[in-house]
Amino acid sequence: MLLHSVFLIIFTLLVAGCVATKSTQELVKNNYIKGTITSISKVNGGYVYTITSTDTSNGKLSSAQGFSTKPCNVGDLVYARLNGAKFDYFAILIQGYESIKEPAIIKSYHRSKKNLTADKIPVAESIEF
User: pLDDT higher for 97 or 125?
Assistant: First the structure.
């Protein structure tokens, strides 16, 4: 009887411990980021990227800096998973997403009355077949 009650106590503590560790893992912030690359620095064997987020929904990071071996350019839209100081998953969604845009050329048309002609309206017209 005593052995049975000790076994039940140990079992309940194990179950409670598993539930407690599971809930703390769910509270950890998401390490994903979707954003544009703002700066790149080349290091041995890869690149160090600084990413500024364009989408912070679902607990995504607002900015991140990490290492990846995948080459890309400043202004590319990427989706990445940060694990420590390294990007485990790194995908380029749109190349040149945030490129330097030239200002739009706005054409203005000025109408003037100096080229207008005074056409006379016909008084009578005849159509023959």
Answer: 97
